[in-house]
Specification:
The chain is an alpha+beta fold and about 240 residues long. The chain contains six helices and nine strands. Strand 8 and strand 9 form a beta hairpin.
């Protein structure tokens, strides 16, 4: 046997008796901030310098804010940015026409006002085009029953319409309307048919715009239908 001394290390996990030693329990990791008061408190606790030094994408991820570019027409007139939601779940919409240099300051301004309460804010107060009111004369049809002399809106909203006639179905509970019809002209309609005198058929679910010749054809079909119905009724009565 060699005279060299030997040393033996004892694992820290064992006592000298060889019994295992239970290591101390690790402290639980701090919970991640949520969209509740914890997240808001952390956000409020950040200094101005910390906020300014944090890259914007990191702030957006932290606060749960999604940014979307939209066409200017999707926002109210004069508004070029909006935020809707609350901390942890919010959407920012930016007009595509907004210069890049102005986008980050606006987003950061929105983030400074975000709270746990659901809210909607916009940048750029809504402004409406200034229009000059004028009084004009509208040429009308003899059959038109609309009070155009009382119209105060846009001229393209004027539609000429006659009184309606109704086809009714007799029932035990009284007459039930099946079809309505009236004459109409919409001078500013995209459809050529509607810009000329035509017949509108309404069944309470859909509107059908019939040129005058088609209306005559419909009258013929209705006459034939009425004759067939009368004949059917007579057969049913045994005559």
């Amino acid at each position: 046997m060699s005279d060299t001394a030997r040393t033996t290390s004892v694992p820290a996990a064992f006592r000298q008796s060889g019994a295992p030693v239970t290591p101390p329990a690790a402290e639980p990791a701090p919970a991640s901030p949520t969209a509740t008061a914890d997240l808001y408190a952390m956000w409020q606790g950040m200094t101005i310098g910390e906020t300014a030094a944090t890259p914007l994408p990191q702030l957006l991820t932290l606060l749960g804010v999604n940014v979307e570019e939209v066409e200017p027409e999707e926002l109210p007139i004069g508004v070029y940015a909006t935020i809707h939601g609350q901390i942890g779940d919010a959407d920012v919409k930016l007009s595509r026409s907004l210069p890049q240099a102005e986008r980050e300051p606006i987003i950061r301004e929105f983030l400074n006002t975000i709270t746990p309460d659901l809210a909607h804010r916009s940048k750029g107060p809504a402004r409406y085009r200034v229009t000059k009111q004028i009084t004009g004369t509208i040429e009308c049809y003899d059959w038109c029953s609309e009070a155009h002399h009382e119209h105060t809106g846009n001229i393209e909203n004027i539609v000429h319409q006659s009184s309606r006639i109704t086809m009714e179905l007799p029932t035990e509970n009284g007459p039930m309307a099946l079809l309505y019809a009236h004459i109409a002209v919409d001078p500013f309609a995209v459809d050529v048919v509607q810009r000329e005198p035509h017949i509108v058929i309404d069944d309470d679910q859909s509107l059908y715009f019939l040129p005058l010749m088609q209306s005559v054809e419909l009258c013929t079909e209705l006459t034939e239908f009425a004759a067939s119905l009368r004949s059917m009724t007579a057969k049913a009565a045994g005559k």
